[in-house]
Specification:
Number of domains of chain B: 1
Strand content of chain B: under 5%
CATH architecture of chain B: Orthogonal Bundle
CATH superfamily of the largest domain in chain A: MetI-like
Order of helices and strands of chain B: HHHHHHHHHHHHH
Oligomer: heterodimer
CATH topology of chain B: MetI-like fold
CATH architecture of the largest domain in chain A: Orthogonal Bundle
Number of helices of chain A: 13
Helix content of chain A: over 70%
Distance between the termini of chain A: 8 Å
Number of domains of chain A: 2
Structural class of chain B: mainly alpha
Number of strands of chain A: 0
Structural class of chain A: mainly alpha
Chain lengths: 295, 307
């Protein structure tokens, strides 16, 4: 977040003005930090409640007033969610699917982006077409995909799900890498070509390593998308390939709502995505806006 | 002899690599294009056929229906209500997120101790699954497990008995709450980047001209932030219009059909009632509607290409 960094902006009042202004700035300062504090509370409150729920014994569930600090924390919800309620299965499937998507999306996306950036392949039309994929509502694709996958026997199949995720992360990977390659000087690759490299070597050995930071964030975004996606997974998986979000969505649907279990699994499922999120913080704004805003 | 074979092989590999070199650009884009064609364009084309026939798991055969599927969706009061709900929920959510996000960005733009640690914390929700976020709020709001009513009661000093997810105005409120929790950080981080990019000179100049802080905000900050704000709002509107996960976890469209959104309605048509023909017809219309709305955004994103 270096770009969002330090910046001093303050009016420089002189003489008698300073006292009045000083007081106003102090009031503003109080308001400012009160607002930040309130938002922090709004943000962390739910997280704390989920954490407490995950270690609460069942007897503490519905007491009035609510139990904020359980006396005898327990880990049974974690073991029940992971072992008995398909938690591990979900985590494993999500990891496999997200892993495949990350690798394929980055490779395919980088290749296309390189071609579009260096040779202007397809020109504006191709770029427009790729970007418009970002707008498409998943619900419009998932019904026909469901029917097609049924014919191809790809329902409840990790690879079927991964293929779809690749396509939905491609606009992102392509655009991210496209902006990277556009900013990279052509001269290095030209020098490599003059030195007898093939085009392929110029991409693989010169451009690709230079684009590494962009590749890392494109990969992280693809992973986070696949790890958190719900609608496709809900429709296309049931047992074999079920992913974490689908598993979690079913916990509260049961008669005896499994509050602790669902909290426990949610916490487990959050870890990898948060980790990757921190990793790509510097490129976050550029990623979220497909390069329209340079963070 | 051996030399000849070697030379041939070399020539072959040279022609192969020069073929690769000549068609390099097309070889590189083709995997992406093929994948997108196979998994979005082809299904959407197939969906056109599905939308014009009877495609229903309860009815055998695929008889031609013309535009009847489309008519059924358009005349379905639930569909109309779902579109209206989607429109105003998305607008309300984005408006809330924009205001809070902007205030937060303004509060955070100047450095202070601990700011470096706060920003990553503020961004946490962006990396969570909307299902998990919806489920967080379900835990907080559902009676009798959630502490929300108790907290409100303790603050206000009287008994609060709100059924947050099953009572009409409150169900909307719960959805907005969950959406704002997850996506206010989105607005925040983009607007923060936008604010930080405004050069200091402009503020010094405004100061020299005798502008007061409020004037500096309205005549310097806001106009310069506007393009960034528009991009952020456009992205959020497009995604908010597709809202599904939170509804599925938090309200299941209820009470009744009050919190049906376009995506939830189409999901129900397709995968709970198995009216797949009608569902695809509706999905196509929804997609066209959304494309019209988002055309502007794509044009804006393409600007760097034209430059």
């Amino acid at each position: 977040m270096a770009a969002v960094g330090a910046r001093a902006r303050k009016p420089r009042p002189s003489g008698a003005e300073r006292m009045i202004l000083g007081r106003r700035l102090r009031v503003e300062g109080v308001l400012r930090f009160a607002f930040i504090g309130l938002f922090l509370l709004f943000l962390l409150g739910p997280l704390y409640w989920v954490f407490v729920t995950s270690i609460k014994p069942v007897a503490d569930y519905q007491t009035v007033p609510p139990v904020w600090f359980p006396d005898s924390p327990t880990s049974i919800h974690f073991s029940a969610a992971l072992n008995d309620l398909r938690g591990w299965t979900g985590l494993k499937n999500s990891a496999i699917v997200a892993g495949i998507v990350t690798v394929v999306s980055v490779l395919v996306g980088t290749a296309a982006a390189y071609s579009m950036a260096r040779f202007r392949t397809g020109g504006k039309n191709l770029a427009f077409w790729v970007l418009s994929q970002r707008i498409m509502p998943p619900i419009a694709v998932v019904i026909p995909i469901f029917l097609i996958y049924r014919e191809l026997d790809l329902i409840d199949n990790r690879f079927g799900l991964a293929a779809l995720y690749v396509v939905f992360t491609l606009p992102f990977s392509i655009w991210m890498m496209y902006t990277y390659f556009r900013q990279m000087p052509v001269e290095l690759e030209e020098a490599a070509l003059v030195d007898g490299c093939t085009r392929w070597q110029a991409l693989w050995k010169v451009a690709w390593p230079l684009a590494a930071p962009g590749i890392v964030s494109a990969a992280a975004f693809a992973f986070v998308f696949s790890w958190t996606e719900f609608l496709f997974a809900l429709v296309l998986t049931s047992n074999e390939a079920v992913t974490v979000p689908v598993v979690i969505s079913q916990f509260l649907a049961f008669q005896a709502a499994q509050f602790g279990e669902s909290s426990a699994l949610s916490l487990c499922a959050m870890v990898p995505a948060l980790f990757l999120g921190f990793l790509v913080q510097k490129h976050l704004v550029r990623g979220l806006t497909l390069g329209a805003v340079q963070g | 002899m051996a030399l000849g074979a070697d030379a041939t092989r070399r020539r072959l590999s040279q022609t192969a690599s020069s073929w690769v070199d000549r068609h390099f650009r097309w070889l590189l884009v083709s995997p992406a294009v093929v994948l997108i064609l196979a998994l979005t364009i082809f299904p959407l084309g197939y969906a056109i056929w599905v939308a014009f026939v009877t495609y229903d798991f309860n009815i055998p055969g695929h008889a031609w229906r013309g535009i009847d599927n489309f008519k059924e969706v358009v005349t379905d009061p639930n569909a109309r209500k779902a579109i209206a709900t989607t429109a105003w929920l998305a607008t309300a959510a984005v408006a809330i997120e924009l205001v809070i996000g902007l205030l937060l960005a303004l509060a955070m733009v100047r450095p202070f101790r601990g700011r470096r640690w706060l920003i990553p914390i503020f961004l946490l929700p962006l990396f969570m699954s909307p299902v998990i976020v919806g489920q967080f709020w379900a835990l907080l709001l559902t009676e009798p497990f959630g502490p929300t009513n108790w907290l409100l009661g303790a603050i206000s000093g009287s008994d609060v008995n709100i059924r947050w997810t099953t009572q009409t105005p409150w169900a909307y409120f719960s959805i907005l709450l969950a959406d704002a929790w997850q996506w206010t950080p989105f607005m925040f981080v983009i607007l923060l980047a936008g604010l930080s990019a405004i050069p200091d000179d402009l503020y010094s100049a405004a100061d020299l001209d005798g502008a007061r802080p409020r004037q500096a905000f309205f005549f310097v900050t806001l106009p310069l932030l506007l393009p960034v704000m528009l991009v952020a709002v456009a992205f959020r509107v497009i995604d908010a219009a597709k809202i599904f996960d939170v509804i599925y976890v938090l309200t299941k469209g209820g009470p009744g059909t009050d919190t049906y959104t376009a995506s939830y309605y189409l999901y129900e048509q397709g995968f709970q009632l198995f009216h797949l023909g009608r569902g695809t017809a509706g999905a196509w219309m929804f997609m066209i509607l959304l494309s019209v709305v988002s055309y502007w955004l794509v044009r804006r994103l393409l600007k760097p290409v034209e430059a």
